[in-house]
Amino acid sequence: MSASNSAKISPAVKLGTVYSILFAISSVHLLNDAMQSVVSALFPIFEDSLGLKFGQIGWIAFTLNMTSSVLQPAVGLLSDKKPAPWMLPVGMACSLVGMVGLAYAPSFWMLLLAVVFVGFGSAVFHPEGSRVVFFAAGERRGLAQSIYQVGGNFGQALAPLMTIYIFVPLGQRGAVLGTFLAIAAIIVLLRVVPWYGAQLAANGALVKKKAGAAPAVKPYSNKVIAFALTLLLVLVFARSWYAAGISSFYNFYMQDNYGLSIKAAQVPLFIFMAAGVLGTFLGGILSDRFGRKRMMLFSIAGSAPFALLLPHVSLGWVYPVIFLLGFILQSGFSVSVVYAQELLPGKVGMASGLITGLAFGMGGLGSIVLGTAADHYGILDTMVVCSFLPLIGLLSILLPKDRRE
User: Fold this and answer.
1) Which residue has the higher pLDDT, 21 or 82?
2) Residues 252, 171 share a domain
3) Domain of 40, in residue numbers
4) Any idea where the Major facilitator superfamily (MFS) profile domain is (predicted)?
5) Is the pLDDT of residue 24 over 90?
6) 357: domain CATH number?
7) Are 300 and 396 in contact (CB under 8 A)?
8) What whole-number distance in Å separates Cα of residue 401 and Cα of residue 335?
9) Reported pTM
10) What's the confidence (pLDDT) of residue 12?
11) Is 322 helix (H, G, I), strand (E, B) or coil?
């Protein structure tokens, strides 16, 4: 595509939402997060094949998530200064190496090294992917971010299905199939990267000027921004720790408390994650209509009653309760990313990396803390204590109003 043609047809900020690119980058997000899900899907298998304890499983989740979280804000800051479309396929290549490592790791420490490659690939992808979304969003930023996040959530939701249909039959070596996910992502990026590069060449200055320009209303003071970001990070902490408890250990809870098999214990986890996909999509749409703050308050505080109820219901009630819990809890995640971007105009990559990176990092820290607690106090008591975390979401009422309000 020539520069003159791209200038005529590609500026999302002028011509509206570019859905073809949004769905393409969302599909890559799906594949990226599916590769991350391979790690958690293998937890029950690693427990058997390598004789891992709950604490070691927590360290695996911690390594994956901290690799992403530490690097994402830094990569985001660099991409704000100098975007690099070629980093997208490089990130996928790193994840491909990680998939091979997961399949053939002979020990716990080699397993951690493979996980580092997967985490690094994710850290590179997310900030650049968010910038692609920013270019393609037009004026529908909540919807665009939801389309992007739905891909990631759906990829995460594949973890229980991979456990049931791939890793229980094939064992640890089945992780090598994850290389096909990386290859598919690179193929899709062959369509996205040239478009992204054309946007940078033709409209980079325009987008940067628009994103960095003073908003129509009086901007927040530095003090208000610092307070809002701090509070936002606390909310991300609460949601991420609780989500880590569900994704990493709830299947063990189902086995111990209800006597389910490994396969049967994956079903509630899949319901939770699939409901989160729906919640993420609708949450972004509703935030464009009702505001970011309202959706975040509804999301994490509204999920608290269901979180408190979940450890105490009979098996038959687990399924509807965990569906509502996943739907409500995840309805605010993409909204929190947009809210952070609006707090820090002109710093799309850093804001996205900060929120999504911190979500991964806090989830990883939560996994190691909860895993250690489960080893010492038992999985049943640990999951009951974990259920109180969403109550922290009530603090979201203190957030300042959106700029869009």
Assistant:
1) 21
2) no
3) 18-203
4) 21-405
5) yes
6) 1.20.1250.20
7) yes
8) 13
9) 0.67
10) 41
11) helix
